[in-house]
Request: fold
Amino acid sequence: MRSELLRLVAEGSGSSAVIVDERRRMAGRGAWLHPSEKCLALAIKRRAFGRALNGATGTAEVERRISAGTKAVDTPVAAATTVQPESGSEN
Reply:
């Protein structure tokens, strides 16, 4: 699903940095990436950013963003308590 993907763009102004387009509205050509360390590593290995974003290769910001997001997702969450409906028919 597209809402789960990160939109990445080249920073522009002569820079070769790839940045995350948080609002998905930045001008220019964009590339989409699943926000996982595995997908990022594969994209780097395949040199996908350079091809998709006209030579942009600096991925430090994207790596920080995915690393921060992965740690937040991997944090254990307390089990939610089940709420029973109060219909009155359980008697």
